[in-house]
Design brief:
about 700 residues; alpha+beta; ten-stranded mixed beta sheet; two-stranded antiparallel sheet; 31 helices; elongated
């Protein structure tokens, strides 16, 4: 009596002496309107009621706005007359959301008894006190007729029980028993009734009647042999149920009660699932446990005993839906301890492939996740090289996996064609998601090849900008070897050499200062006259990182303006400011350091600094380099000195990359710097050895 779901209700009938037809004369408010109650009740009407069939109980499903409901109705004997002196019946109806019904198994009998205890008045829904689901009682009532009825429902046709002189409660228990012999989720689409009129068409699948209807229902005499041959699907189900006595059937009913996923008797696959679930239970009863079966299967694998392996596969497969996470951890330990390299005789074995498919599901679940592929490498390491049956099993299960898991399987099995098929079928957004999620070299390179093959485009450019040009994933994945990948990303984003506006936009998209490899990539891919945009962007990141504002910021802006000013305005001290006007001084801890470096520069050199003096000042910065020193040099630099700073930054980044910078990349960076600063102002840029020598 602990379960108390919320029930909405309605009353269908008439009022005494009224001239109206049947209609909803009272209902709860809120979830369902009177019109919806009326549609529901009328859609599952069972024809003209015969007095001897009353009271009548019926259960029916209903969908409203994508939400499923289950209702139960009690139609009582006439007690009053309408205005035409005709007796009329009353129908009392309660309904519950399927999400409530699915959480706890309940019987039609429990709903009926709860309905009888309720006062249908007011406008509010009420809570039901339901008796617990009782598998032993249901199993005891499962006679041969109930088992045949459950089996015949799996043909997709209605079932009508005839020649049964039974009281209401016994009919209701029979309906409950039949439903209990099917997966619980089938109640979401199953309409049943203790009586129907066979002369009327209706939507009720399981009922009692005087005679069977003439519109395609199975006729099932009460507790008598069926006159017709059972179709295959029904015959197999009856055979499965016949294995159980009352005690064994109690366990099966308890198991079926936990299968609450909605199933539809109109769906062939759902009907087949019912048979599969019953067979699973039979197989699980015979097997002591998967933990005992696994070592035996692995031993059969090592002996190349295909017959035994095939037999054990059938038993193992029956347990797939009852595996817990704790089980999976235990199974993985068993596999690691007992797995050995495959004998040559199993190279092309279907039994071995089936075993590995079952094993993958036992160890990792019905659908492999990307992280499972990493675990798989360790769990199956005793096999050595990936054997053919395991590779085939992985490819087979990959059909239900997400793209990243599919890719990892394709790379693990070495199937280049599979890699290309997966990537070619994905939109740009999903391809870039793969790079962000995987942080794997082969995945990243595969995605880049696919995007390059498509030719980039506006969509690619917009996605790369939103994803900050994938700087972090590429840097994490390739570290010092990331320069070429950064360059490929920049080419995809623009399809040409970068313009000043491109450089500005790219740097603004980043969360912080670019890594050294990405900085060099920008230089290598830059077009003419982009030096000012690059230095301005780098300075902006440095000012934000150090939280500099006020006069010190103005001095740095003015210095940068002088450094990057065109020839006609280099004589002016401050023709423009890149970052806005003067603001109040901030309390940044870096201000003192910057001022100290500036004072040191003024003592050493006449300021503003010339190109030669900027170069000397940069080379005099300590190690590790601090942003404060770089900003101090900017603040004290004179006109046209940007070239020195740009080349110094490039050389410093190249030195840090070391062997990650090829001769070809160094030459491209040199050409990029020449375009950025102008050919007449180009300086030599060479790749140094790890020891620092050219």
């Amino acid at each position: 009596m602990a379960v108390r779901p919320t029930a909405h209700w309605a009353v269908l009938g008439k009022t005494p002496q009224s001239l109206d037809d049947y209609d909803v004369i009272g209902s709860s408010t809120g979830a369902l309107s009177r019109a919806e109650f009326s549609d529901w009740l009328k859609s599952f009407a069972s024809g003209t009621v015969e007095p001897k069939a009353l009271p009548r109980v019926a259960a029916s499903p209903f969908d409203r706005g994508g939400e499923s409901w289950l209702g139960l109705s009690l139609q009582t004997k006439p007690e009053s007359q309408d205005g035409f002196h005709r007796p009329y019946t009353m129908t009392w109806h309660i309904c519950l959301r399927w999400e409530q019904v699915a959480k706890i198994p309940l019987s039609y009998r429990a709903l009926y008894e709860a309905l009888q205890r309720k006062d249908f008045s007011g406008e509010s829904p009420f809570r039901l006190s339901l008796h617990d689901y009782d598998p032993p009682r249901l199993a005891a009532a499962a006679n041969a007729t109930a088992r045949r009825a459950a089996a015949l429902l799996l043909t997709g046709r209605p079932v009508c029980v005839v020649r049964a002189e039974l009281p209401l409660e016994q009919r209701l228990d029979f309906l409950d028993c039949v439903a209990a012999l099917l997966p619980y989720g089938m109640r979401s689409r199953l309409a049943v009734s203790t009586w129907t009129n066979s002369a009327s068409r209706h939507r009720i699948r399981l009922s009692f009647a005087e005679v069977a209807p003439a519109h395609g229902a199975w006729e099932l005499p009460w507790e008598r042999d069926v006159a017709h041959d059972l179709p295959a699907e029904a015959r197999h189900y009856v055979q499965e149920l016949a294995q159980y006595d009352a005690d064994g059937l109690t366990g099966l009913i308890s198991r079926l009660a936990g299968l609450d996923r909605p199933l539809d008797l109109d769906n062939v696959a759902d009907r087949a699932e019912a048979l599969m679930r019953v067979r699973e239970h039979a197989a699980i009863r015979l097997a002591s446990s998967v933990r005992q079966l696994l070592p035996e299967s692995l031993a059969g694998l090592a002996r190349a005993d295909e017959a035994r392996l095939h037999e054990l596969n059938g038993r193992l497969s029956q347990a797939l839906d009852r595996v817990t996470d704790a089980d999976r951890r235990a199974y993985r330990v068993i596999v690691q301890r007992n797995l050995t390299p495959l004998p040559d005789g199993l190279t092309g074995s279907p039994a071995a492939e089936t075993f590995f498919r079952i094993l993958l599901s036992l160890l990792y679940g019905p659908v492999l996740r990307p992280q499972d592929i990493d675990d798989l490498r360790g769990d199956f390491s005793p096999l050595g090289a990936l054997p053919g049956p395991l590779a085939k099993a992985l490819k087979a299960v990959s059909a239900g996996c997400e793209p990243l898991a599919k890719l990892r399987i394709a790379f693990l099995t070495g199937d280049g064609g599979m890699v290309r098929r997966i990537l070619s079928g994905l939109p740009v957004e999903e391809l870039l998601n793969l790079i962000e999620r995987s942080r794997e070299r082969h995945v990243l390179d595969g995605v880049l090849r696919e995007l390059e093959g498509r030719g980039g485009g506006k969509d690619v450019a917009e996605q790369l900008h939103r994803r900050r040009y994938l700087v972090r994933p590429i840097s994490d994945c390739f570290q010092d070897d990331s320069l070429e990948r950064h360059r490929r990303i920049l080419r995809l984003s623009r399809g040409r050499l970068l313009l000043p506006g491109d450089v500005k936009e790219i740097l603004e998209a980043l969360d912080g200062a670019p890594p050294q490899a990405f900085l060099l990539a920008i230089m290598a891919e830059s077009g003419w006259g982009t030096s000012a945009a690059l230095l301005s962007g780098l300075a902006a990141h440095a000012l934000r990182e150090l939280r500099l504002d006020g006069p010190i910021k103005r001095d740095i802006e003015d210095g940068l303006t002088r450094m990057t000013a065109p020839a006609l305005v280099r004589a002016l001290r401050s023709p423009r400011r890149l970052f806005g006007g003067r603001l109040p001084e901030t309390a940044s801890s870096s201000i003192g350091t910057i001022q100290s470096v500036r004072e040191g520069l003024r003592r050493r050199f006449p300021t503003p600094l010339t190109e030669h003096e900027v170069n000397a000042a940069l080379n005099g910065l300590g190690r590790p380099l601090r942003l404060e020193g770089l900003l101090a040099i900017m603040a004290e630099s004179g006109p046209g000195t940007a070239r020195e700073l740009l080349y110094w930054l490039a050389q410093r980044a190249a030195d840090q990359l070391g062997t990650g910078l090829t001769d070809k990349a160094a030459a491209d960076i040199g050409q990029g710097l020449e375009r950025m600063t102008g050919p007449r102002r180009a300086l030599p840029f060479v790749r140094r050895s790890p020891g620092g020598q050219a």
